[in-house]
Amino acid sequence: MEKELPHQEETPVFHNMSDKPTSLVTPKIIVIFLVVIFAGIVSGYFLSQRTVATSSTSGSATSASGSKVQKGTQYGSNDTATFKDTTEGMMQNGGIDGEGQFHLVRPGGDSQNVYLTSSLVDLSQFIGHKVKVWGQTQAAKKAGWLMDVGRVEVLE
Q1: Other beta carbons less than 10 A from residue 16's beta carbon
Q2: Other beta carbons less than 10 A from residue 35's beta carbon
Q3: Degrees (nearest 5) of the Cα angle 56, 145, 60?
Q4: 69 phi and psi, to 5 degrees?
Q5: What is 17-68 written as a DSSP string?
Q6: Which of 2, 45, 128, 136 has the fewest CB atoms within 10 Å of its CB?
Q7: H or E element: which one contains 12?
Q8: Between 2.60.40, 2.40.50, 2.60.120, 1.10.3470, what CATH number should domain 61-154 receive?
Q9: Torsion of Cα atoms, 146 then 66 then 48 then 121, to 10°
Q10: Which sequence spans correspond to the domains of the chain?
Q11: Parallel, antiparallel, or unpaired: how do β-strands 130-138 and 102-105 relate?
Q12: Could you give the 3-state DSSP secondary structure of residue 120?
């Protein structure tokens, strides 16, 4: 005669540690996400409305690109703490071996040229003009001096 074993309940191997269903997307996270998106749009709009040109003093000339630039006018940022390096020269088109898009011709020959790039000021409007630039010196492989320009003053 075989003995019957008492009936045992099966217990699950995995237990649910929480009675609440787990979800990563909650209403609180959705609201935070929407607020961050809205703040980004609003701040982007106001930053895009900032003007780059500052006041002018006198004179007027037409640049090689056809736009009017005025002698004595400063264009770009007033942040002289960031753009603390300055130099003067005649603005010309072209860099050297992929460094800079423009260069300043200064007395002393080609070795004294300053090669320029800028994300703040459209340097093409100053081609053919004597200018003073404020910028930040950048590391260069070919150029003797490579500068990221933040401010330009038209001298002639």
Answers
A1: 9
A2: 10
A3: 20
A4: -120, 145
A5: S-SSPP-S--HHHHHHHHHHHHHHHHHHHHHHT---B----S--EE-TTS-E
A6: 2
A7: none
A8: 2.40.50
A9: 10
A10: 61-154
A11: unpaired
A12: coil
Q: Per-residue confidence of the chain (156 residues) as pLDDT tens digits?
A: 566 766 667 777 776 666 666 667 788 989 999 999 999 999 988 887 765 444 333 334 444 445 577 888 888 888 888 888 999 999 999 888 888 889 999 998 888 889 998 888 889 899 999 999 999 988 888 888 889 999 999 998
Single-letter amino acid code for the residue at 75: Y
∠ CA 36-51-132, rounded to 5°: 125
Q: Is 61 left (phi over 0), alpha (psi -120 to 50) or beta?
A: beta
- Tokens 């787990």 belong to 22
